Amino acid sequence: MKLRRTTLAVASAALAAGMSMAASAEYEKLVEMGYPAPKEGDLVHVPPTMADLEEADIHPELKKVIRRGYDLFTNTQQLRGENVFNDMNCSSCHLGEGRQPFSAPVWPAAVTLPDFRGKNQHVNNLEERIAGCFAYSMNGIPPEYGSDDMLALSAYHRWLAKGAPMYPDQPIYGRGFPAPEKPEELSYARGEQAYLDNCAVCHSEDGSGHYEDGEYVFPAPWGDGSNNWGAGIVRTHTAAGFIKNNMPLGQPLSLSDQEAWDIAYYMTRQERPQDPRYTGDVEETLEKFGPTFHKNSSYGQVREHDGHRLADHANFGEKGDIVPWNVGVPRFEDLED
Ligand code: HEC
Ligand code: HEC
After folding, report:
1. Which H/E stretch holds residue 146?
2. Which residue of 74, 106, 115 sits with most ligand 1 atoms within 8 Å of its CB, as the best mutation to test the pocket?
3. Domain architecture of the chain: domains with CATH
4. 143-168 confidence digits (pLDDT tens)
């Protein structure tokens, strides 16, 4: 009975939000799983699927480019050593092929950009936003603006946004990795234990992920094969939101808020490749980016239990010394006038 009442409440909220019946049915499933229902006035958008693409009345050449974008998004490892220098695919963090609410669905970028971005203090377009996830989350070197791969990825993002209004005034339902309420106190030791109990079976005890016969199966939440110190997910609240809403895989929302935050606290206090904005000195880097980005990360902090200073190293992971500015990508400070 409770389920039915929930369903009706969702359906009416959904219709009030201007959703079709088909769309509201999709979102009912989420609410039954425990995700919050859309609020009145929220923008609720159900991205089209790759099957819808085959049916769509658009030029076959465009379909080809969107298919290529999908393929790159879900198997970004094909760019390993060129644009990607860790074990990730875009879909390692953006679950459900970048369509899943509460898993930072990627289509909102296609309808909210160009816009000012606090992280780099200027107006970004969609390509630059995608480039950001390459530079930090993939510990990589972004494909060139206007290249075939960049075109394909941006076409895929735009395809997912099909039918959503441009520059919407409403809040977007399920955007980002919304964090649960922050508990009073976070614990590294509790986080470690909860990680071992709930996560290590797939991601391994040392956070290096899992390989079988040289094939990668589960990505690395920290270490050389993971995202670098500049990635959004190193912020403890973003990690907590990711974990609460998406992990353990297949059991989203099964951890308590305290557990999700403790694990995020533990996970974001492990080593990973250096932030590509590193100036050569952790203190100086912190002075530059502490007031904005790193105020929410543990970059440069001293870990209590062993006195280790986080991110105080020049290890860029597999990228070695091909840091972006050595291959023609301007240093962050050169972008500003
Ligand atoms: C290590 C995890 C991770 C990986 C891998 C990753 N991203 Fe992201 N991505 C994030 C986080 C975190 C955000 C910020 C979400 C937020 O604002 O809460 C984000 C945001 C985005 C956004 C903006 C979404 C919005 O709501 O505006 C786009 C677009 C995007 N990523 C594209 C990509 C692409 C393309 C790739 C692969 C080249 C990729 N991401 C790989 C973690 C990741
Ligand atoms: C059943 C296996 C499994 C379990 C258990 C699991 N994960 Fe994952 N996790 C995955 C897979 C698979 C992905 C990548 C998603 C994809 O490719 O579909 C992932 C992605 C991630 C990512 C983003 C990519 C990265 O490696 O940084 C993080 C962070 C993460 N998991 C943390 C956790 C945490 C914390 C727990 C425990 C609460 C957990 N996972 C439990 C399988 C698992």
Report:
1. none
2. 106
3. 1-44 (no CATH), 47-175 (1.10.760.10), 188-324 (1.10.760.10)
4. 999 999 999 999 999 999 999 999 99
